[in-house]
Amino acid sequence: MYMEKALHKISVRALSERIYRSGSLLGAGYGGVSGLDGTRMHQRVFRDIKNEYGEDCVFSEYSLGTTLEYELFTIQISGRADCIIEDSNTSSVNIIEIKTHNRVAEKVESLILPTHEAQVKIYAHLYYLSHAEAEDITITLRYVSFLNYQFLEKSRIFTRDEASEFFDNTMALYLNEATRISNYENARNESIAAMKFPYTVVRSGQKDFMKAVLSSLKHKETLIAEAPTGIGKTISTLYPSIKWLPSAEGGKIFYATAKLATREVADKALIDMRNRGLVIKSIQLAPKEQMCTAKEEFCDSRFCPFADGYYSRLNAALEELHGLDAIYPEDIRRVAEKHRICAHELQLDASNFCDVIICDYNHIFHPRIRLQRYFAVNEFCHTILIDEAHNMISRSRDMFSATLSRSTLLTALPVLSTISQKTEKYSHQLVDYFTLLDYAFEKDSAGLNMAEPAIKESEVVIGEDFRATRTVPKNLYQLLWALCFHIANILADLEDREKRRILTEFYFEARFFLTIIELYFDNAYIIEVTRSGACSNGQYDISITLDCLDASDKLANILKDNHNAVFFSATMSPAQYYRSMIVGKETTFSRMIQLPSPFPPENLQVLILKDIKTTYQERNFTCDMIARTILRMISGHKENFMVFFPSFAYMEMIYSRLSKATQQDPDIELMIQTQGMGAEDKKHYLDRFNRHGDKTLLGLAVLGGHFGEGIDLVGDRLKGAFIVGVGLPQISKEREILSQYFQNKFGDGFSFAYKFPGWEKVLQAAGRVIRDENDKGFIVLMDERYSREDYRLLWPEHWRVAEYLSDEAEIFWDDL
Ligand code: SF4
């Protein structure tokens, strides 16, 4: 049988790292410069080089590549050289590789790594291949300090013969690995071609969903899909993505979830496909803090034994992991412990040879946590599958927000005051800055301008212990920048462990705050200053937050033209809200689909009690009526029910009524969610639903809380849910600012800031009732607003709604 040769793609950077990385994990000298800071530096350096050599002969991101044919496979090597100077007057060529670091080095030799040298040498070879006339080109490594923008560089002539020899040697060293990868990819592609859908039944809507996913992958679109419970979301996204994999040209599949628990579903889908013959390697990534076994250490070989000599022991560890198809955190921990290397770094290195990476949203989008090796440079177009994507709105806002607090500063102050005169000076100026903010609260004035003269009083929103402005705090920025500059200068050489730990934590917090201002701050941000509790010196704690109100532009920048993405959840309506909040208003690269529920609509009774008022002012008057109605409707039915509320305070009001009314009734059991419930208590609460038929169980919980979504009470475990109110978030200054922002952006601030987030929680809670095709149950929506026209427009299509006065409402028990 004729088989196409496998095509294996690798970037110049990855090839250099794979072959020439050696010794220990990098310390803070490089580690402190994030990919994004590095990109910003590159742009600045490139501007400087253009000024030095002239516009016309300097080229950045110069694409180079070659294709090598072997007996069983083809290898395509490609990359973009940072900068190439082609001087036509002298016929000279200089290939410059730019590296950033955060040290003040005196000798360039102390900065050069073998991987950097390899990269520029391979670029030289690729350049020679495409320029037959080129001779004796110069290769340069230029190291730019993030601290003072000064650079050190090393250049040399690298002849055609030298370049060719270096490249041949590199490929000889890589050939074994390339052979292994190609063998795997051949087997994988064959198995994908032969793979059938792993389940006997394709559920209603599932086919449409899979077709839409495949079409989006082909057209490089971002798909936003509302896929109701029961449709089989995970397999509907993973199956077509895996079918697409042979065409993805090196791209991987990232299956990202908001919670660890939901990863098991993705894992199960992969196991089911493997049981049908699929050959595929996958890995589940765990957060760094869960993998780090040297909790008190730093990622620096002088302090952490698992960083020391990491690369010299890495290959043996990887060799063991190559034998596994599915790699779990426990495999990584076991192998890392055996070889005494860092488990966190090992899981990242193992992900290189896996096609499916099951991870958290942060691994893809968070500016500080995202996997640099896949998302800092867009070498390949990856497929990103975002499960429970309704969470992305709040999660993405958090990812792009940053906070600096007085308590964080005071924790580091004893160290900052003693390690250098400069850090002492700037940290005390920062202490004074917080004192001025505190003074503004004391005086009950908008006086942020005492600390930031550029901020006018009229531009400050004032609330109790709350101030907000849109103006960038320039004084704070300059002060913090100067402090970080001097910390970074010291950090790499600081030997005292405790001081180093304290300083490192402060530095990364502060540096992230600066990065948000430098790279992301725009009119989607607001600066909030809040006062709360007390910090170590007995004063109020003051926090300054760069609050990202809407991260859609940032997400769109990561995805558009770079990666395929599918955002999916059971609650993605109204569609326009989710699309606007996930990828912005632009519709050229994104599309939406809404799939019908696969469950018989008659299995769910939806009742609206149109005479119940739950606004804040009405609550005292309607509490008794709500408690009475709930008890009347379930009276005599020994089933399990839940009642959801918009807040703990409201829940406790109704709980006291329910409790009083049922205290003499041994057949009714009440349970209530409490604030700060531990894992054991949550488990105990949920476990109670496993019992059924002995009593009438009423579990009270808050909307959007632990029991409001993500729990699966199938069959008799849950018969019905009462939802009190429409789930609106509490009114606050912060919400009002959000509302104003959306009013300006979309012309409907209330809906975007209050109504839609509330509706999302209602739908999530309602979604707890029917979990499979045999489930039958009811939802009682207890608020007159559900009957209003604007809410009717939001009702899911599969709902069969009956509206009642609360005294008349009846559940059709015979149908359940
Ligand atoms: S074990 Fe922990 S401290 Fe050591 S390198 Fe890994 S993550 Fe860093």
Describe, in plain words, how this protein is organized in 3D.
The protein folds into five domains: about 5-175, Lambda Exonuclease, Chain A, CATH 3.90.320.10; about 195-280 and about 355-400 and about 550-595, P-loop containing nucleotide triphosphate hydrolases (Rossmann fold, 3-Layer(aba) Sandwich); about 290-355, no CATH class; about 400-550; about 600-815, P-loop containing nucleotide triphosphate hydrolases (Rossmann fold, 3-Layer(aba) Sandwich). Helices cover about 45% and strands about 20% of the residues. Helix 4 packs across helix 5 and helix 7 packs across helix 8 (about 265-275). Strand 2 (about 60-70) and strand 3 (about 75-85) form a beta hairpin. The longest helix is centred in the N-terminal third of the chain and has 35 residues, at about 160-195. The strands form four sheets. The protein has an eight-stranded parallel beta sheet with strand order 10-9-11-8-12-18-7-19, sandwiched between helices. A seven-stranded parallel beta sheet has the order 22-23-21-24-25-20-26, with helices on both faces. It has about 800 residues and is α/β, with parallel strands linked by helices. Iron/sulfur cluster binds next to helix 12.
